[in-house]
Design goal:
The chain is an alpha/beta fold. It is globular. The protein has 2 domains: 9-122, Cobalt-precorrin-4 Transmethylase, domain 1, CATH 3.40.1010.10; 125-268, Methyltransferase, Cobalt-precorrin-4 Transmethylase, Domain 2. 32% of the residues lie in helices and 21% in strands. Helix 3 (71-83) packs across helix 4 (102-111). The protein has helices at 25-33, 45-48, 71-83, 102-111, 124-132, 162-165, 181-190, 220-227, 244-247, 249-253, 259-268, and strands at 9-14, 36-39, 56-59, 62-63, 66-67, 87-92, 116-119, 144-149, 170-175, 198-203, 211-216, 233-237.
Length: 269
């Protein structure tokens, strides 16, 4: 690490869903020249392998009821590293501004007059959906998509506009939703969303050990528990989840698949 007294710079970098080949070229370049990297639990080992051997590493990962470092201390760490002259990469899974607290860190950096730049990443919703063959929107099925968090502070129930979320024409993507999937599915059905609505749950999306689980809203809890899906996981709820049976990786790789038949099936969906 440099001993320069010149103020450094902080890069809020999206590490994407896990596969290092899904990093942006800019993220890859900045990682290669960092001298301090502050990284989250959801950053994959294969992305961390791109960090220079001589760079200082600070793990600040969070999970339910176990925060390695409170957010306020992470903010202070970024400021102090930059004020000490370091080129800092704040490395997050997915995108810094999608459930990544990147904006909280940006506000603190501005208050402390620390130069920073945001480098977006492929958010987990896009990465997971692509890896299992589920489009987040599809003509005639889903005219919109909503990202929500399925996690809240300990012992605090999820407080959402369930009636608004229970829209059959919208794809609902739930981040960090495994722990509360029973509450989520029950509230959506109580708000009017059909229990037969297709659902796909994905664990460790885009990685070699990726797991998927196909269910309906009504069977989500039992199916995920039977599959022993592990966190981090993402839940995609909506009619588009059913397209995994048509354009998912298993169907595309299926020997003897008739491409014309696949196209006709999608068109008539």
């Amino acid at each position: 690490m440099s001993n320069s007294t010149k103020i450094g710079k902080v890069y809020l970098v999206g590490g994407g869903p896990g596969d290092p080949e899904l990093l942006t070229m800019k993220a890859h370049r900045v990682l290669g020249i960092a001298d301090a990297v502050v990284y989250d639990r959801l950053v994959s080992d294969s992305v961390l392998d791109l960090v220079p051997a001589g760079a200082a590493r600070f793990f600040v990962g969070k999970q339910t009821n176990n925060h390695t470092m409170p957010q306020e201390e992470i903010n202070a760490l970024l400021v102090n590293l930059a004020l000490s002259g370091h080129m800092v990469v704040r490395l997050k899974g997915g995108d810094p501004y999608v459930f990544g607290r990147g904006s909280e860190e940006a506000i603190e950096l501005i208050k402390s007059e620390v130069p920073f730049e945001v480098i977006p990443g492929i958010t987990a919703a896009a990465g997971a959906a692509a890896s299992i063959g589920v489009p987040l929107t599809h003509r005639g099925m889903a005219t919109g998509v909503r990202f929500v968090t399925g996690h809240c502070r300990a012992d605090v129930p999820l407080d959402m506009d369930w009636k608004s979320l229970a829209d059959p024409n919208t794809t609902l993507v739930v981040y960090m939703g495994l722990a509360n999937m029973g509450q989520i599915s029950a509230n959506l059905m109580a708000a009017g969303l059909d229990g037969a609505t297709p659902v796909m749950a994905v664990s460790k999306a885009t990685m070699p050990d990726q797991q998927t689980c196909k269910a309906t809203l009504a069977t989500l809890v039992d199916t995920v528990n039977a599959r022993k899906l592990k966190s981090p996981a993402l839940i995609i709820i909506g009619q588009v989840a059913g397209l995994a049976d048509i354009i998912g990786p298993e169907m595309i790789a299926k020997k003897g698949s008739d491409d014309g038949e696949i196209i006709r099936s999608i068109a008539s969906a």
